[in-house]
Amino acid sequence: MNRNLHRTESHPLGIIKAAIQEYFEGRHPGEFRFFDDLRPIVKTEANFDELLIPEDHVSRSPNDTYYVGDGTVLRCHTSAHQAELLRGGHAAFTCTGDVYRRDTIDATHYPVFHQMEGVRVFEEDDWGGEGDGTAHAEAELRSTLEGLAKHLFGDVECRWVDAYFPFTEPSIELEIFYRGEWLEVLGCGVMRQEILEGNLPAGASGKRRRAWAFGLGLERLAMVLFGIPDIRLFWSGDERFLSQFKAGDLTTQFQPYSKYPPCNKDMAFWLSDAFTENNLCEVVRGVAGDLCEEVKLIDEFTNPKLGRTSHCYRVVYRSMDRSLTNEEIDALQERVREEVVGQLGVELR
Predict the structure, then answer these.
(1) Which residues contact 315 (CB under 8 A, 6 or more apart)?
(2) How far is 271 from 301, CA to CA, in rounded Å?
(3) What integer pLDDT is reported at residue 178 of this predicted model?
(4) Strands in the chain per DSSP E
(5) Which of 17, 134, 172, 224 is deepest in the core (most CB within 10 A)?
(6) What tens digit of pLDDT does each residue of 217-264 get?
(7) Distant-in-sequence, close-in-space partners of 146: CB < 8 Å, separation ≥ 6
(8) DSSP 8-class letter at 32
(9) Tens digit of pLDDT for each residue in 180-195?
(10) Is 3.40.50.980 the CATH number for 5-242?
């Protein structure tokens, strides 16, 4: 999966990343460091504990996160590098990379996508020593990110919505009014003081500090900005897609080309204790890969006499670059059925 799409200058993700870095370099010349090659396998402490994510938080579940081995995971956000970069003495930085989450299968979700984390630290001299610096950090954060939104999307209207993240307080989300609708752009906030103070480098000054942090998804921004309708296209090697984009050009609008026909296959089964929708999607993806366009629940019912629940899912198969034959689709679906029974213990109907 790790094809470094965000490091390819003419790829939509590389274009977005470069535009954001250009903005921060222009706003704060020479201040920000840009990291985009940090290893995606991280310790669970870095992915969760150092960000104050509670022990019972849903993101810690193997249903949502890819555990690689004892005490390591595929990072599910670039925030996993926040503490180590602070310990390294970096006071202003962005960190971009591929992140991994077990998720549903549809046009906007994929098990690997790309995020950018941004952090800026202030010392009390920056806010004149009055108060604890939270108000200063939040005001500068809002100003910075509204400027970023306008840098990417033009003179858009912005609004802020209260949010909750374990690692920031206060926490807010930025929305923009773009092409007739309000769209969420990113989440951010003032970094929890426990994180900042717990990761100051040795010998740091005794002055008080505050920091802000934000996180954004490159695919989400690129899909909106360039009009890309299917997240699988980012991984396509089709020149009809790749040739449309040029480094440094934020104005390109994706021009659709002929889509190959889909094929729908339905599958009904009695649920088991091991069943979750994320587990089902992992099984389907493990068999069909990117040939699966969507997995969608279309029917469910509970038999009160048996005390059992049945789900029916529609699996949509469609290739991005060729027509699929009936024979290979039937073979894929049969393998999916076998694997769902074998791995999830469901009973087919």
Answers:
(1) 264, 265, 266, 267, 284, 288, 292, 294, 295, 333, 336
(2) 11
(3) 96
(4) 33-35, 41-43, 67-69, 72-74, 92-100, 112-123, 157-165, 168-178, 181-191, 209-217, 263-270, 292-303, 308-317, 347-348
(5) 17
(6) 999 999 999 999 999 999 988 899 999 999 999 999 999 988 889 999
(7) 158, 174
(8) -
(9) 999 999 999 999 999 9
(10) no
DSSP state of 207: S
* Per-position b or e across 243-281, b if 16+ CB within 10 A of its CB: ebbeeeebeeebeeeeeeeebebebbbbbeeebbbbbbb
Measured distance CA(198)–CA(215) in Å, rounded: 21
Q: Rounded to an integer, what distance in angstroms lies between the CA atom of residue 322 and that of residue 316? A: 15
Site of tokens 């440094």: 248
Which pair of tokens denotes residue 216?
Answer: 């954004």
Query: What contacts 24+ positions apart, CB below 8 Å, involve 156-159?
Result: none
Pairwise CA distance, residues 272 & 264, whole Å: 24
Where do the domains of the chain lie?
5-242, 263-348
Give the pLDDT score at 205: 66
| Integer CA distances (angstroms), 175 to 17, 134, 148, 265, in order | 19, 22, 12, 38
Question: 91 in helix, strand or coil?
Answer: coil
Q: In the prediction, which pLDDT does 202 show?
A: 67
260-314 pLDDT, tens digit each: 899 999 999 999 999 999 999 999 999 999 999 999 999 999 999 888 999 999 9
Residue given tokens 């999966």 in the structure block? 1
Looking at residue 70, its pLDDT comes to: 85
Q: Could you say which of 2.60.40.640, 3.40.710.10, 3.30.70.380, 3.10.310.50 is the CATH number of the domain covering 263-348?
A: 3.30.70.380
Q: Is the pLDDT of residue 5 over 60?
A: yes
Predicted TM-score (pTM) of this structure? 0.91
